[in-house]
Write a structure and sequence with these properties.
Chain lengths: 294, 358
């Protein structure tokens, strides 16, 4: 078992609780022991990063410091936005000794443990797309999705900026496809899988956001996907909940079920409904998943 | 070396598009632009594309290779040709095609001009009568933005602009930051007001395509974030995007986690939020929204509150907060590794040199 500090983030704590329960249930099956951090806060999303960058850096340094204090080398994320924020802050701190000193001094003043820069921030997707995690996944989720056509949707902030992500080619990613296939599903290809769901501006510029959202939903549907899967709860919320606004705006019916990564693998690995919590979705994925039982 | 390219041709007189393949011999050091020159000289004189300096400074030869915007003069073809790939070359996105690889840059230049991309001086003349000198520290604040060559690669890929063509976009906003960050400019507040409009700073969807594609390391998304920080610092926060951002700050200070349910009224105001009630009820019925009882509060949240107070006292607000992290991030951009001498032989891959000469 790999011991990792588990950073849930805001959505998995509240509106996307199903992401948390399915991740917790899946973790031991893919060789991860989750150490939940109690004293951490929101990473600030892109919002605090943009508005008050110095505060953003301190908030994220505090999260990293608590991961280090829990004696973990890896901070596990389940959200693209958390991944970008934490990795970016981590590189800022690791790459500039003066900056790290200044932030540590401030952390000390308010009673937060010091951060030495030794934690690596990794998304669940990366943990199960290669290495030990992938080997365990293949066993746990063997052929569980046979016959299911799954459209992978990466979302932006797990691919770009690639210099911060350092995992896969941002234009030709492979990790979600590899996982879908390991679970016996069929990965559907479509151009918008690396594009944007519109979530960051969905409240401030709804029309522009919906114009972005329609691309992946429409293309996945036209490519014959039964379901879509995403590693990001913000993309999930946008794709799942705002899909009804897309339908109202276009007069079309999409009805595309959206799964969190941990749910998709969870289905293949035989998790219970109490862990998957599909009832919480706006577009119910259960009818699409029923074909797996036949 | 043998090179093969597929090029999307477009005939403006007939409106027809066609994908044509070309194969030819090119020197091993050839760039994509060199290859296009070869095609035009030897195979098809009607091929249209823009070029000038051939050394990544004029910004003329922006186009797409396999769907991703590049400067043709920056892309070496050796590895691509060796791998037997046949890349597809097409015109940039988000701008209408005039012919083949040439796009109409009118809307690009209109947005550029709308930023008033020139100094609005108002600084005090130095007493010694000499020139106004800017400290290195202040130069650093706009160093990346100053590298822009107006090629349009970022605009080509901007997803917000695909959805709303009126969005000012990454190039114009990065240019705006270049002047907002210039201590000689006296119109900072007016600029921030203008850039905070309906199609400005807060319409950026944070997809990071612009940072990914920029051939000069401008990182336009980071420049937009600098403008956002500066606008907030100056109290220019009427836009819903700014209010949205401020609610995140308030949330981390109070419960530690985002107070999701209150985000809509705090961003859009109460009146607009009422219009969202039907949508909200649907979310509530699926437990996607609503108030958490007991409230979801992070342990030791007082520490976050104290940090917020502390950073305000230290006053590193606005773009300064972004600039402090750029030094470390630049190391990533340049493939920096601790202990590596960047000038030693073999430090830079030189794929275009024949074997034995590298």
């Amino acid at each position: 078992m790999k011991r990792v500090a588990y950073y849930k983030g805001c959505l998995a704590s509240l509106s996307a609780k199903e992401l948390d329960t399915s991740t917790q249930a899946l973790a031991p099956k893919v060789g991860l022991e989750l150490i939940e951090l109690k004293s951490v806060t929101c990473c600030g999303a892109g919002d605090i990063h943009e508005a008050e960058p110095d505060y953003y850096l301190h908030l994220n340094a505090r999260i990293l410091a608590y991961a280090e204090a829990a004696d973990c080398d890896t901070l596990l994320t389940v959200c693209n936005v958390c991944t970008l924020n934490l990795r970016q802050a981590n590189f800022m701190l690791q790459g500039d000794a003066n900056l790290l000193d200044r932030i540590n001094e401030n952390l000390k003043t308010v009673g937060v443990p010091q951060y030495s820069g030794k934690v690596d921030v990794r998304h669940l997707l990366w943990e199960i797309a290669e290495g030990e995690g992938y080997e365990k996944l293949k066993v746990a989720a063997h052929k569980g999705l046979k016959g299911l056509k799954v459209a992978p949707f990466y979302g932006c902030q797990i691919l770009r900026p690639s210099k911060i992500m350092q995992f896969e080619d941002p234009d030709r990613p492979w990790s979600l496809e590899r996982i879908i296939e390991a679970c016996g599903g069929e990965a559907i290809d479509y151009p918008a899988k690396i594009k944007c769901c519109g979530f960051p501006i969905i409240q401030a510029r709804e029309e522009t956001a919906l114009g972005e959202l329609i691309q992946p939903v429409e293309q996945a549907m036209e490519a014959g996907a039964d379901v879509m899967v995403t590693p990001c709860p913000l993309c999930h919320l946008s794709l799942d909940a705002w899909q009804q606004k897309l339908e109202a705006a276009t007069g079309r019916k999409f009805g595309m079920p959206i799964l969190h990564l941990s749910q998709l693998v969870g289905v293949a690995a035989g998790l219970e409904e109490s862990e998957l919590k599909f009832k919480r979705h706006i577009v119910d994925p259960r009818p699409a998943l029923d074909k797996l039982r036949v | 070396m043998q090179v093969a390219l597929k090029i999307w041709r477009y005939d403006s007189s007939t409106g027809e598009r066609a994908l044509r393949e070309y194969e030819f011999d090119a020197p091993e050091e050839a760039t994509l632009l060199d290859c296009l020159d070869i095609v035009k000289e030897r195979q098809d004189g009607t091929l249209a594309y823009r070029k000038s300096c051939r050394m990544m400074i004029c910004g003329s030869c922006g186009m797409r290779m396999n769907g991703a915007a590049v400067l043709a003069c920056k892309v070496r073809m050796y590895e691509i040709a060796q791998a037997g790939e046949v890349p597809v070359i097409s015109a940039m996105g988000n701008l209408p095609i005039v012919k083949d690889l040439v796009v109409d840059m009118d809307s690009f230049w209109q947005k550029f001009k709308a930023m008033k991309p020139y100094l609005q001086p108002g600084y005090e003349e130095p007493e010694d009568g000499r020139e106004y000198r800017i400290s290195q520290e202040r130069m650093n604040a706009v160093h990346k933005e100053s590298l822009c060559v107006n090629c349009g690669c970022c605009v080509s890929e901007c997803i917000a602009m695909e959805s709303d063509p009126e969005f000012l976009g990454p190039q114009a906003l990065a240019k705006g930051m270049r002047f907002v960050g210039d201590p000689r400019d006296a119109a900072t507040v007016e600029r921030l007001e203008e850039y905070s409009g309906e199609h400005g700073i807060w319409e950026c969807t944070r997809c990071f395509f612009c940072n990914e594609r920029c051939p000069k390391g401008v990182d336009p998304r980071d420049a937009i974030a600098k403008l956002g920080a500066e606008a907030i610092k100056e109290g220019i926060d009427r836009d819903m995007g700014a209010k949205h951002a401020k609610w995140f700050i308030r949330s981390t200070e109070t419960t530690g986690w985002l107070r999701e349910t209150e985000l809509v009224p705090k961003t859009q105001g109460v009146v607009s939020s009422v219009k969202q009630m039907k949508f909200a009820m649907k979310l509530i019925s699926h437990n996607k929204a609503g108030l958490a009882f007991p409230p979801h509060v992070a342990a030791d949240v007082g520490e976050a509150r104290a940090l917020h107070k502390l950073v305000h006292e230290q006053g590193r607000l606005g773009f300064e907060g972004h600039v402090q992290g750029e030094r470390a991030l630049a190391k990533l951009a340049h493939g920096y590794k601790e202990g590596r001498d960047p000038y030693a032989p073999g430090s830079f891959p030189r794929p275009y040199l024949p074997e034995g000469e590298a």
